[in-house]
């Protein structure tokens, strides 16, 4: 949260975002053994959209592919989901292996091995609106209703960017209040714990790779297994387990993300102009999609129009 706040100030936005925070946390114990449970995934990744610009490895932030309504996908099919639309760690996170942020293949293997009873028939895509009210009043209830219709017993929620972590924390809270056990697989520990969730599996990895290391099936399988054990064993809400996996031998990679101190004045000016252009584009898309702009408490640019 501190890094994100400093980054927005450096970009010229002087209205710091107010992160969601709750003292009380709902908690729904797993009602069945996992071997008999139906498990769903909630993701913030976006379906690939041909013709809407770069969306793969090395792609810059792409507001054109950001989505603003809940979507679903058939878990019996493979899906090309990407994270070029979010503020992930573009220098260190892997954007080529979707298993790092969408653990459907690993979950299928867990079902085949009998570790999990069955996949839910569909997964859910959660929009990462910065409006907490819109998430709580519109998006989260839609996901909860869908999970209840699908007879879901437990949900894995995998966020990517800072706001994704808050969004899925709010969704997890609503699912738990409805009696559905959840675990957030996250890489932004402070945001999730600040919001207050029942279970968090924290991987100290670059933002965007919370489901495991790229091209490393063993890492992704271990990450999933830790999340499943947390579903089974958490004694109370606010239970956080940290994965023992390390991203690399050193920790210098952590200093690069959203760190204005590591950029030249020229590069920071370029990033500032780019961020403002994306903000304007994203706002137009929200209005076009939803009929209005639901986002609240957005940073406001010192020289620009208010969001």
From TrEMBL:
<protein>
    <submittedName>
        <fullName>Glycine reductase</fullName>
    </submittedName>
</protein>
<dbReference type="GO" id="GO:0050485">
    <property type="term" value="F:oxidoreductase activity, acting on X-H and Y-H to form an X-Y bond, with a disulfide as acceptor"/>
</dbReference>
């Amino acid at each position: 949260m501190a890094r994100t706040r400093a980054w927005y100030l450096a970009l010229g936005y002087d209205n710091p975002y107010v992160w969601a925070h709750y003292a009380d946390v709902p908690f729904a114990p797993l009602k069945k053994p996992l071997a008999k449970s139906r498990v769903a995934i909630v993701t913030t990744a976006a379906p690939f959209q041909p013709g809407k610009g770069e969306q793969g490895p090395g792609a810059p932030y792409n507001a054109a592919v950001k989505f603003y309504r809940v979507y679903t996908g058939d878990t019996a099919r493979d899906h090309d989901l990407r994270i070029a639309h979010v503020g992930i760690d573009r220098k260190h996170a892997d954007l080529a292996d979707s298993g790092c942020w969408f653990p459907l293949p690993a979950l299928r293997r867990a079902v085949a091995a009998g570790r999990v009873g069955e996949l839910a028939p569909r997964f859910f895509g959660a929009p990462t609106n910065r409006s907490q009210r819109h998430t709580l009043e519109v998006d989260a209830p839609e996901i909860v209703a869908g999970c209840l219709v699908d007879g879901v017993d437990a949900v894995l929620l995998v966020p990517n960017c800072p706001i994704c972590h808050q969004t899925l924390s709010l969704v997890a809270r609503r699912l738990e209040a409805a009696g559905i056990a959840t675990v957030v697989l996250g890489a932004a520990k402070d945001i999730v714990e600040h919001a207050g969730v029942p279970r968090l599996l924290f991987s100290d990895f670059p933002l965007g790779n919370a489901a495991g290391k790229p091209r490393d099936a063993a890492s992704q399988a271990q990450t999933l297994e830790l999340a499943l054990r947390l579903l089974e064993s958490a004694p109370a809400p606010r239970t956080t387990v940290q994965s023992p996996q390390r991203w690399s031998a050193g920790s210098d990679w952590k200093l690069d993300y959203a760190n204005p101190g590591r950029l030249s004045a020229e590069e920071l000016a370029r990033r500032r102009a780019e961020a403002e252009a994306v903000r304007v584009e994203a706002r137009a898309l929200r209005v076009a999609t939803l009929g209005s702009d639901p986002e609240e408490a957005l940073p406001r640019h010192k020289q620009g129009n208010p969001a």
